[in-house]
Amino acid sequence: MGRLAQTEGLTEIQREILATVRSFVDKEILPVATELEHKDEYPTEIVEGLKDLGIFGLMIPEEYGGLGESLLTYALCVEEIARGWMSVSGIINTHFIVAYMLQQHGTPEQKDHFLPKMATGEIRGAFSMSEPALGSDVSAISSTGVRAPDGSGDFLLTGQKMWLTNGGSSTLVAVLCRTDEGHPEGTAPHKSMTTFLVAKTPGFGEVRPGLTIPGKIDKMGYKGVDTTELIMDELRVPADRVLGGNTGRGFYQMMDGVEVGRVNVAARGCGVAQRAFELGIDYAQQRHTFGKPIAQHQAIQFKLAEMATKVEAAHALMVGAARKKDSGQRNDLEAGMAKYLASEYCKEVVEDSFRIHGGYGFSKEYEIERLYREAPMLLIGEGTAEIQKMIVGRRLLEEYRSQD
Ligand SMILES: Cc1cc2nc3c(=O)[nH]c(=O)nc-3n(C[C@H](O)[C@H](O)[C@H](O)COP(=O)(O)OP(=O)(O)OC[C@H]3O[C@@H](n4cnc5c(N)ncnc54)[C@H](O)[C@@H]3O)c2cc1C
């Protein structure tokens, strides 16, 4: 382990968990990641290994069979896993967000029903806000949930969702829909949304009456993990599968979920940047030009120095954002900053490492080629850079309100 991205003040247990995950990444993920990624193959064995390590239940409270660990522990594990292969961190990220939303907002029955099986990875979560016509502007959602006319109290969901990470492999999807019931005309759009807990079988096609998961979207990177659309045609969902029991809370529940998801995406950026740095500093000492290793040319040393500084800064901000949430404080400002900085720096560090590799960086034989296609996703997922800056800017204006 190098000296970068160290975290002060960890407990013995946290250090043990991280050492175990790092060793798993070095032995089980890094040796196969690039090959699986090129084949766009789902990493089944890796996922089984992570289940055995308890990663799917890392933050789920012990009373539900999880490890009851903090957001910081979780984020540091995500950083390690993304260092091995970002797609694997994507497989656990949506699961983690849904488990967190259930913990925070679920009814006692919903928690008892879902969380124990989520802790083992038997139930696997995905979350769905985005639609073909919107991603940033969540308040414009057009998928609807209306009461069934048969008086059962069930809801019928109709609409098309887009960009569903783990859409095929998951068995529980938290779906955000518009439900106008009980809300007077003119209610703000974000106050008439509801999160539905939709159980389904894994796979593609009609996975449940009224619910179709078409095939995987073909992506430039972030392969292996399945990203899909989701089509609902009067999908029947019982009333007790409204998250928290009451309609109209969905927007807030989802925003709470993506807030912790942002720390997670920041952690992914840190992990990918670390790996890019490792590859770059190694290659720079192997490759010779003009009679010496390129690492001895000052221009390359400067690049390495800049890359390492970015790795350190992103890690520090990510750790600060996680610790703020763990202390029970609102962390939207810190999470927004961490997500923004880590994803931008990740892209820059990957680009520098790519340049250090010269022509070989363009070859699929070199790992940096995969990282180069993976880093851009972090600029988009869990809110683009512009959206992070909007969140940060608004919060700053609240904090630094002018007195006159
Ligand atoms: C691989 C992948 C996986 C994903 N997984 C999921 C998932 O699991 N669940 C899910 O719900 N979604 C998921 N998403 C969707 C993701 O959250 C959205 O793509 C993202 O929020 C951006 O939305 P958009 O693509 O509609 O872009 P748009 O919202 O159309 O934005 C386009 C551009 O305009 C900018 N922009 C938008 N509004 C403003 C504004 N007010 N001011 C300034 N600039 C603005 C944006 O920053 C961006 O540059 C995933 C996306 C990808 C690519």
TrEMBL record:
Its cofactor is FAD. It comes from the Bacteria. It comes from Streptomyces iconiensis. Residues 126-234 form the Acyl-CoA oxidase/dehydrogenase middle domain. This is Acyl-CoA dehydrogenase family protein. Signal peptide: none annotated. Residues 248-397 form the Acyl-CoA dehydrogenase/oxidase C-terminal domain. InterPro entries: Acyl-CoA_Oxase/DH_mid-dom, Acyl-CoA_Oxase/DH_mid-dom_sf, AcylCo_DH-like_C, AcylCo_DH/oxidase_C, AcylCoA_DH/ox_N, AcylCoA_DH/ox_N_sf, AcylCoA_DH/oxidase_NM_dom_sf. Residues 11-122 form the Acyl-CoA dehydrogenase/oxidase N-terminal domain. Keywords: FAD, Flavoprotein, Oxidoreductase. Belongs to the acyl-CoA dehydrogenase family.
